[in-house]
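look at this one:
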Amino acid sequence: MHHAEAHATGGAVRRPQLEDPLVPQGEPEMLSTHAEVASFLDHIRAVGSFAYDTEFIGEETFLPRICLVQLATSERIGLVDPMELSQDAMRCVWKAVCDPTLQTLVHAGGQDVLIAQRGAGDHAASVIDTQIAAGMTGMPWPLSLANLVESLAGVRLPKGHTFTEWDKRPLSKAQIGYAADDVRFLPLVWAKQRERLDALGRTAWVIEETREATRQSADFDPQSQVRRASRGLTLRPRELTVLRELVLIRQEMAQALNLPPRTALPDSCLLDLARMATPTADRIAQVRGIPRTTLQHFARNIEDTMTRARGLPPEQDAQWAPRPETAEQRTQLDALWSIVSMRAIALGIAAPLVTSRAELAGWFLSDRTERPHLFPAGSWRQESIGAWLESFLRGERNLNLRWHDGGPTADVS
């Protein structure tokens, strides 16, 4: 819903209602002064657990511009307006998210937690992501908040706020309602998930995985950006090397220009540049889609980076290049990936949460005397999948498939 439409609806959007002691009732509190924020944070500390979300604009600047922060306990909802508050006041909010004595509930909250970690200069060590919890309790992956709330709380959230202009003021009643609903039901959702996870013995798995996910979200991951930019196409090893070096310099250019990386230099341009046999300033300028501002400030840097990358020793090409697979190995790995996925289904765990085919291939094709385990010892992945997989490959375990209640299940022995 665009900003004008949100205001046009006024208060006409019907809000979902659910009378439950874990669902805060009534209108959210608008927190626009330091004293109001401090008072609400005192309430959070007294409760010991709270839901957290943000509304931000990430398409215009290198770091997202925060427009609204939503906080909720089972008793109250507070909407923090960063556009009205000082950095000191916002730092108090960010430090609460990172406070190890407080349990912070999020849904698909990687970016939201990263915002808090940047603001606090600290790591968020006590976060629970309800999307991860859903993936470990037999629910689809990735599951939206609306579908999770409907499944566990029986409440259908209205749609339409995703495209609203959160930086415009005043916020409409519809916007305020939508923002509040993003955190209103999380205490109840987590309580229901916790019951199921405790019964399965997986609560610690969710805590471990959320902690790892928040650490990863704080890191710049050039390898994942290379994979996304290559769009699944098969590139020559040297082209992958050039693409890798361009991804690294793009991050620096984007920060200098205060633009999102893919705005400073789109993925399609990275791919065209990586395939360019002989980089010259004229040829680079002819690549369609490179923003004029980027060319004005960094054309020489791009040319130098590509020239240097093409002159690296050949062994550099293997740094991120996927290990080549023979036809026989490809068949084996396709089968093994299916087997791992079915093992995950049998346990009610979303397979993409466990691993990827690329990671599985890297382990299977490697010298396993040096890396005997697919996953770190003691991790939830090794406990649930890794140890069983090693026994399966030794011929000590079986996986029997059957169709039951409209879907595949697996009997593991």
The CA atoms of residues 51 and 72 lie 5 Å apart. The mean pLDDT is 92. DSSP finds 19 helices and eight strands in the chain.
